[in-house]
Each structure stands twice: as C-alpha cells, then as structure tokens.
Design brief:
six-stranded antiparallel beta barrel, 2 domains, 332 residues, Elongation Factor Tu (Ef-tu), domain 3
Length: 332
C-alpha cells in the first residue's frame, strides 16, 4: 500500500483517546499481526538476533470530545478530550460513537441575522457549544459517549489533508520502517509500538507502560511537529524531511548518530531544538524503568489539532528510511 493511501486509510478511522480499538485493529490488519496491550495499543515484533532491543513508538489516539450533558430533545453539551480549540467546532459535522453504533450530528451556530450584537465575532466557549443530533437516532446517545469530527481525508496536490494525522502519520512511518528493514541487515529485535492515550497529556501511560515491559536498550519516538510560521516557534517545513530533535530530553549520542546517518544516505532532514519537555510520548518512554535512551523524530505538519491537518507523504517515507538505516547501523 502506498504511503499516501496508508495516510488516508488511517485518517479515516476514528480513535479518540481511550477508545482506540478500531485504529489498533486496522493497523494489525495492515501489518498482518501484532499483540494487543492492556491499554489498547499494539506491539509488532520484528525479529533480529536477540542481542538487543529497540522500540519505535507512535500514538494512535486522536483528539476528540465527549458528551457531558443532555440538553434535551436531541441536543447535547460537549467537553474536550485533548487539545480541541472551541473556535473550530461551530458549523462542523460530527460523529457520536455510541454503544449501538455511530450517530451523526452537527454543531450549529446561530445565524448572523439573529446573533446579538455583543456576541458577533466572538468565539463560543464549550458551555455554549451544543451538538444537534435531532436528525439522527439521538435516543441512543448517552453521557460519556465519544465525539469526533466527521471529515474525510483528501489530497491537496502531492500532500494529504485530514483529521488525526497527528499521529497517524507517525503510525504510517512505523509501517514503512518495517518495509525498509526487509531490505537491510540488522541485529536488533525491533518493536513497533502503536501506543494509546497520548493526547490527554499526563505522562503518556500507553507508551510508558510498554517501554517498561519491553526493557528497551534505546527507543525512537515519532510524532508530528508544527510546520507553520508562528511567533515563538522555530519553523519546520513541509517537504524538507523529518525533524530530528535535540535538547535535554533527547539522548545526545542518538541525535548525533541520526544526523550522521541522514547525511550519509542523502535523507532530507531538519534539526528541531527542544529546550523543554517535548509534549510527546518521549517523556513517558524516557522515564521507564531506570531510564531509556530516546530520540524524537517529528514529521512536519500544518494546522495541528484541526480537521484539516496537512502532511507530505515524502516526509513520512524519509522518516521511515532514516529509522531503518539508523537501526541497521547502530551497534548492538
């Protein structure tokens, strides 16, 4: 399956934090195997010589919402799961993942003709945002049901846009790493780890628990990074290859080896300075057991945590190629 098709297929699957089963099963289907974890993730082992263990991590969950209260007659109040910006929601179509199946609805907004002057041009807060499911079988919706935006991925020229590319783009890079490794020699036992519950931001339990269990020699965490020009952020650029992280939470030797490997194999890459916590699974993996040497590689992405995230499939492939060569050339 092409990188582009994989991105669009995984973007299409719904997996808000804590409800990632559908994503894990789709990836297991693509890989043709894998072991499910207690927290809902997936581990796929690639056999090496058994002399050492390396893990590659990408999280499968996406931001979303949950039904927090019934407003009556098919209307429901929502709350956020992960970094959902309320200004994105009005005028959106959504899916409610109920026990009886998917219920579709919309998050409407009062027509400008009826909006009071003091509210015109202002962003609604979550306590003002209401899901309208009156056109569907809304009786099956319960408090606590998960809600995701209802959007299909599509192509933008050579790029792909859609929801949940944070971090399904990382998941695709792991799948592609497996393909590259099939053409290389390596001694490591390699574990592809598709972790859960990253987006809630409290210690990455889905990744840290697996890192503890596997007792890895070193690990690579793959996530996405901001590819827009924003004041206060170093801009990573789409189409310029993976961003190799450097900072106090990144193993210095692994960073240097990754840069050296990228240069030797002509892999486009960027350097991302990370002076503080990275906000990724890196922190959870790094702290497992007595500590795990970690490297963070990030895929440039535009419009993070929106329904129109954008990535370049070539950046995803170059991320995979870099990881495969790094694994092949690191000594056990």
């Amino acid at each position: 399956m092409t990188t582009e098709k994989l991105l669009m297929e995984l973007s299409s699957v719904d997996g808000p934090t804590g409800y990632e089963d559908a994503v894990a099963e789709k990836i297991r289907e693509i890989l043709g195997g894998g072991e499910r974890t207690k927290l809902g993730g997936l581990i796929y082992k690639i056999e090496g010589s058994g002399k050492g263990r390396v893990g590659i991590f990408a999280h499968i969950d996406e931001i979303g919402m949950l039904v927090s209260k019934k407003a009556g007659n098919g209307f429901f109040y929502l709350d956020t799961v992960g970094g959902v910006d309320p200004k994105l929601l009005p005028s959106s179509k959504v899916k409610v993942l109920t026990k009886k199946g998917v219920v579709r609805g919309v998050i409407g907004i009062i027509a400008p003709h009826l909006t009071p002057p003091e509210k015109k041009g202002k962003v609604q807060e979550f306590d003002e945002i209401v899901l309208d499911a009156t056109m569907s079988d809304w009786q099956s919706i319960e408090v606590g049901d998960r809600v995701v935006v209802d959007v299909k991925p599509s192509k933008l020229g050579e790029l792909v846009t859609g929801k949940a590319l944070d971090d399904r783009a990382g998941c695709v890079s792991l799948i592609k790493t497996k393909e590259f490794l099939e053409k290389l020699r390596y001694d490591w036992d390699v574990y592809l780890v598709f972790s859960t519950r990253e987006e809630h931001g409290f210690g990455s339990p889905g990744a840290s628990s697996i890192a503890y269990e596997l007792d890895l020699d070193w690990a690579i965490v793959v996530d996405v990074t901001i590819a827009e020009k924003v004041e206060g952020y170093e801009q990573m650029k789409i189409g310029e290859g993976p961003a190799i992280g450097i900072g106090p939470f990144i193993d210095k030797e692994l960073h240097e080896k990754a840069v050296e490997t990228a240069k030797r194999h002509g892999i486009k890459h960027q350097i991302e300075v990370l002076p503080m916590r990275t906000g990724t699974d890196n922190e959870g993996v790094r702290a497992a057991r007595t500590g795990t040497r970690t490297l963070l590689i990030s895929i440039p992405l535009k419009y993070m945590h929106t329904p129109v995230e954008v990535v370049d499939p070539k950046d995803v492939e170059e991320t995979a190629r870099l990881m495969a060569h790094l694994i092949s050339e690191m000594e056990v």
